[in-house]
Design brief:
membrane; 5-stranded parallel sheet; transmembrane; Rossmann fold; 10 strands; single chain; globular
Length: 636
C-alpha cells in the first residue's frame, strides 16, 4: 500500500473506535448543554430540582451529561456523579449513593482539607441540639477539656518547680518527677487518641452511622435509622456546601434491575422534599423507569380503579389512568420538573463519527451565548409584562394546574434560551424579524397539549396557518382544508390561537412559518410523560389493510413489542432473535387498524436468507408521525 493510500481519510483502517461517553461534543449537543447550564445556574433558578436527560440506549445521554458536568466544573460549581448500575450489587443502593456523595464532596477541587475540618465543626455545632447525642457530646467536650488542661499545665509546673524537683535528690523528689512525667505522657497520648477520633469524625461524619446501619438485621431499627438520617442529612449538606447548590448526576438508571432503580428514584424523591440545595440530573429511558415503578407497586395496582379523578386538575377534575405503566409515568411527572429529550444528531455530525480526525461538532461546545438583556429581563423578572401576558394566555389551557404551569415555565425558558442562541427570537418589539416570546409560548403549549397537530404542522405548516386564520375570523370554516377542519371543534385550541395582547405592538399570532422556525431549534418532547390530556384532539383516520398476521411470526404476546422496535428503528434489518432482545416492556396498546397498517409495511429481506430478517419499510415522515403520537392515538 502506498503512502497516499495510507493517508486516505475515507477508509476505516484507523482501528477500533471507543464507544465510551466523552466530554468532547462530536454530535452537536453543545447548544443544548449550554442552554441547560445557563438555565440551571441562573440566579432566579430555585432548587431543589430534578432534570431528566432522556433518550434510548446509544443516543448519547451519558456523553451529554459529562459535557454538562464539565461546563459546571469549569465554572467552579459543585458536582457529584453516581452510576447506580455499577453499584447495584450493593444491598442498599441509596445508602451507597449517600456515601459516594460525601466522598466526592470532600474530595472535590473546591474542598480543601481545612474546608472539610471547618465543615465538620459546623456540623458538630448543628448537632449539639440533637437530644440523643447531647450526653455523649457533653462527655467528650468535658474529657477533652480535662486532658487538654492537664497537658498544658505540665510545662507550666515544670517551668516553676522543675529546678527544685531536679535538685531534690531524695527518692521522694525523683518519684514525683517520674509520676508527673508519666501523667503528662498518659494525658498526651489520651488527648491525641481522642483528638484523632474526633478529627476522624469531623473528616467523615457519616460513615460510622452507615456502617452501623448496613450491619443491622433488625428492620425496625433500620426504619428508625432512615427517619433519623433524613432529619440529619440537611445539616450535613448545609455544613459541607455553604448552602450553595450541588449538581448531582445520576446516569444509567435504566440499566439497573427494576427494583433497584425504582427504590433509588423514590429515595431521590424523599431527598428533594427537604434538601433545597440539590439539583439532580438523571439520565434515563422514561419508559423503562416507569415500568420499574409500576412493577415495584404491582401489589397495590389491582386495588386502584382503572381511572380516578385528580383533584389538582381544576374544579371538574381530570380522569387519569392508574393502570400499569401509566401509574409509573404519573409518579415520574410529580418530581421531574424539566424533561429534556435529546435530539437526533444531524446527518453531517453522525457522518463524521467514522473519520479518524474526528473533531467537535460545528455546533461548538463551549460557544455559550449569553442572553440578550431584554430577553433575560422578560424571562426571569418577577413583574415581567411578557410573563404576565403568557401566564394569562396559557393558564386556562393547562387547567390552572400549578404543577403543569411550573413545568411549562421550565420548558418555555429552556426553549427560549435555545432560540436565543440560534438567533430565532425577536430582540425587542421593534424587531422586524424573529419570533416573539409570546409566539414561543403558544408554540410550547401547542406541542404539549396538541402533539398530533404539532406533528401535522411540521410536515404541512399551512394547516396551523389556516387554523389561526379561522380562530381570528379571517377564514370561514368552509374555506378550510379537510385536515385543518379536524381541529375546528377544539374550543381551547381556537381560544389559544386567537389570543391577542392589548399591546398592539406585541405580535402573538402563531402561523405555520413561525412554527417551522421554532421546531428547528426545539428538542423533542417526551412522548411518554407529558402527553396531552385533551379529549377534543381528533383521531387521525387510518385505512384498514388486509395483511399477514405478525403474531404468526413472533407470537401474540410480543406483537406490540416487536412493532415498537421496528417503529423506533425504521429501515433497519432485524432477525427474530434481535427483535426479541431489543423488545422492552411496551406501553403500546395498538388498535387493529394501526397494527394492520404497520404489519402491511413489514418486509422480509429474502425468503432464502437465514436467519430471516425483517424491517419496517415506511417513508421517514410517516415514521416520525407515528413516533410522535401519544398513547391515546395508538390505542383508540
Amino acid at each position: 500500500m502506498t503512502d497516499g493510500q495510507k493517508k486516505s481519510g475515507d477508509d476505516l483502517s484507523v482501528g477500533i473506535s471507543s464507544d465510551q461517553p466523552t466530554t468532547q461534543d462530536t454530535i452537536g449537543f453543545g447548544p443544548y448543554s449550554d442552554a441547560l447550564k445557563l438555565l440551571l445556574t441562573h440566579e432566579t433558578t430555585e432548587p431543589p430540582l430534578t432534570v431528566s436527560v432522556e433518550g434510548k440506549w446509544g443516543q448519547g445521554k451519558s456523553s451529554f451529561m459529562r459535557q454538562l458536568r464539565k461546563k459546571l466544573d469549569d465554572d467552579d460549581y459543585r458536582t457529584v456523579e453516581f452510576n447506580p448500575w455499577r453499584h447495584e450489587a450493593d444491598e442498599t443502593l441509596w445508602a451507597t449513593f449517600v456515601l459516594e456523595f460525601f466522598r466526592q464532596i470532600r474530595q472535590s477541587d473546591q474542598q480543601s482539607k481545612l474546608d472539610n475540618i471547618r465543615a465538620g465543626l459546623r456540623l458538630f455545632r448543628l448537632r449539639l441540639d440533637l437530644g440523643k447525642n447531647i450526653w455523649e457530646t457533653s462527655r467528650n467536650i468535658l474529657l477533652l477539656t480535662i486532658l487538654a488542661f492537664g497537658l498544658l499545665a505540665f510545662p507550666v509546673i515544670l517551668y516553676f518547680h522543675g529546678p527544685s524537683l531536679l535538685a531534690d535528690s531524695s527518692q521522694n523528689g525523683i518519684l514525683k518527677w517520674i509520676l508527673g512525667s508519666s501523667g503528662a505522657a498518659v494525658s498526651g497520648v489520651a488527648l491525641l487518641t481522642l483528638g484523632n477520633r474526633v478529627t476522624s469524625r469531623l473528616m467523615n461524619p457519616i460513615r460510622v452511622d452507615f456502617d452501623e446501619y448496613l450491619q443491622k438485621p433488625n428492620y425496625e431499627a433500620r426504619r428508625t435509622f432512615v427517619s433519623e438520617f433524613h432529619e440529619d442529612f440537611k445539616r450535613i449538606v448545609d455544613s459541607y456546601t455553604d448552602e450553595e447548590p450541588v449538581f448531582v448526576f445520576i446516569d444509567d438508571l435504566d440499566r439497573c434491575q427494576i427494583p433497584k432503580a425504582a427504590n433509588l428514584m423514590q429515595s431521590i424523591n424523599h431527598l428533594l422534599e427537604s434538601h433545597p440545595q440539590l439539583i439532580f440530573v438523571l439520565g434515563l429511558d422514561r419508559q423503562k423507569i416507569a415500568a420499574g415503578i409500576a412493577a415495584e407497586n404491582e401489589a397495590i395496582l389491582p386495588y386502584l380503579s382503572n381511572s380516578s379523578t385528580d383533584p389538582s386538575e381544576g374544579e371538574e377534575g381530570e380522569r387519569i389512568s392508574n393502570t400499569g405503566l401509566d401509574f409509573g409515568y404519573r409518579y415520574l411527572e410529580k418530581f421531574i420538573q424539566l424533561p429534556l429529550n435529546l435530539p437526533r444528531p444531524k446527518e453531517e455530525d453522525t457522518r463524521d463519527l467514522l473519520r479518524p480526525d474526528q473533531e467537535e461538532s460545528t455546533n461548538q461546545s463551549g460557544s455559550e451565548k449569553s442572553l440578550e438583556p431584554i430577553i433575560e429581563t422578560a424571562l426571569f423578572t418577577r413583574n415581567s409584562e411578557t410573563l404576565e401576558r403568557v401566564s394569562q394566555m396559557i393558564s386556562p389551557v393547562l387547567n390552572n394546574n400549578p404543577r403543569r404551569i411550573k413545568k411549562f415555565g421550565n420548558v418555555y425558558r429552556l426553549q427560549a434560551i435555545l432560540a436565543n442562541q440560534e438567533s430565532v427570537l425577536a430582540i425587542d418589539e421593534n424587531s422586524e424579524e424573529g419570533v416573539t416570546l409570546e409566539q414561543l409560548a403558544k408554540f410550547v403549549v401547542l406541542r404539549i397539549q396538541w402533539p398530533r397537530l404539532s406533528s401535522v404542522s411540521r410536515r404541512n405548516p399551512t394547516v396551523l396557518t389556516e387554523l389561526t386564520e379561522y380562530a381570528t375570523g379571517e377564514k370561514a370554516e368552509n374555506e378550510l382544508s379537510e385536515l385543518a377542519g379536524l381541529w375546528t371543534d377544539s374550543d381551547s385550541l381556537l381560544t389559544l390561537l386567537a389570543y391577542e395582547s392589548q399591546n398592539e405592538d406585541v405580535e402573538m399570532e402563531l402561523r405555520g412559518e413561525d412554527f417551522l422556525r421554532l421546531i428547528q431549534v426545539a428538542p423533542p418532547l417526551d412522548r411518554g410523560g407529558e402527553t396531552s390530556s385533551e379529549s377534543d384532539e381528533p383521531q387521525i383516520p387510518l385505512t384498514d389493510f388486509n395483511t399477514p398476521n405478525l403474531s404468526k411470526l413472533f407470537g401474540k404476546p410480543s406483537r406490540s413489542k416487536m412493532i415498537e422496535v421496528l417503529l423506533n428503528n425504521p429501515n433497519e434489518w432485524f432477525t427474530q432473535r434481535e427483535l426479541a432482545e431489543e423488545a422492552d416492556v411496551s406501553r403500546m396498546t395498538i388498535n387493529r387498524n394501526l397494527a394492520a397498517f404497520l404489519e402491511s409495511n413489514i418486509v422480509e429481506e429474502s425468503e432464502s436468507t437465514r436467519p430471516r430478517r425483517f424491517k419496517l419499510n415506511l417513508d421517514s415522515e410517516i415514521v416520525q408521525l407515528f413516533q410522535e403520537m401519544d398513547v391515546d392515538t395508538l390505542s383508540n
